[in-house]
Amino acid sequence: MSGHRRSISTFTLFAAFAILSSPFTCTAQLSERPTESQARTAHPDSKEVNDLLNRAKTQALQLKTDAIEMKAFTHQNLSWESHGDKINAIKQDVDSLCQTAAKLNNVKSDASPWQKAAIARINPLLKELADNTTSVINHLNNEQGRFLYSPEHKDLLEANADLSSDLSAVVSNYVDYGKTRSKFFELRQKLELSEGSGQ
Q1: Is the pTM of this model over 0.85?
Q2: CA 61, CA 173: separation in Å to the nearest integer?
Q3: I need a labelling partner for 168 at 20 to 30 A (CA). Which of 5, 61, 74, 161 fits?
Q4: Domain count, the chain
Q5: d(CA 153, CA 143)
Q6: Residue 155 counted as domain residue
Q7: 14 lies in a domain?
Q8: Which of 6, 2, 115, 134 minimizes the C-alpha distance to 53?
Q9: Which of 25-34, 115-124, 174-183, 186-195 has the lowest mean pLDDT?
Q10: What are the backbone angles phi and psi of residue 171, rounded to the nearest 5°?
Q11: Distant-in-sequence contacts of 146-155, Cβ < 8 A, 24+ apart
């Protein structure tokens, strides 16, 4: 029967919601933005934090892709099951990012000022995204496909797409900043060595 085809069942959606009934492990821990003088005197960047930020960049990009794809569902004639499959994929994306964020928070004490600022920016965005993803799953569970094209559902999907895009941009910008900053200090050190040898 068609009900047994590759599709997400009511039970699967409720199972997904049951998983979400325990809150995501994303916590917002804000910190003050360091001054440039503090950044110069702080200990060097943590390689572990850089590695985790690079992982978060990849995960955030995947999340952004899935969320934008689901937003486009509102302009397509897709089944409730298709919406369920995609929101489950998004939930997995958020779970993966939350795990990475938890590891970043665990090693925050070893981070340089800009790395701590990056972690502080990621936490609240990720928490808001997790809350909105929960709302999408609740809506799908409660309506069971009856209002897939309602303004409320469209707003939830648009919010997920916007939040995931913002998060991806923030993580990407911090990763790029870290790489540029590292290259700057390497070049400055080479110039100082060159000037010193020329005297």
Answers
A1: no
A2: 12
A3: 74
A4: 1
A5: 10
A6: yes
A7: no
A8: 115
A9: 25-34
A10: -65, -45
A11: 148/73, 148/74, 148/78, 148/80, 148/83, 149/74, 153/74, 154/74
Q: What's the angle, vertex CA 188, arms to CA 120 and CA 190, rounded to 5?
A: 130
Predicted confidence (pLDDT) at residue 195 exceeds the cutoff of 90: no
Q: Is 39 helix (H, G, I), strand (E, B) or coil?
A: helix
Contact between residue 58 and residue 171 where contact means Cβ atoms under 8 Å apart? no
CA distances for 166 relative to 9, 45, 89, 125, 172, angstroms: 32, 24, 19, 8, 10
Classify residue 118 by burial, with Cβ atoms within 10 Å: 0-12, 13-18, 19+. buried
39 found inside a domain: no
CATH number, domain containing residue 163:
1.20.120.330
Residue 197, pLDDT > 90, answer: no
Q: Which domain holds residue 121?
A: 45-197
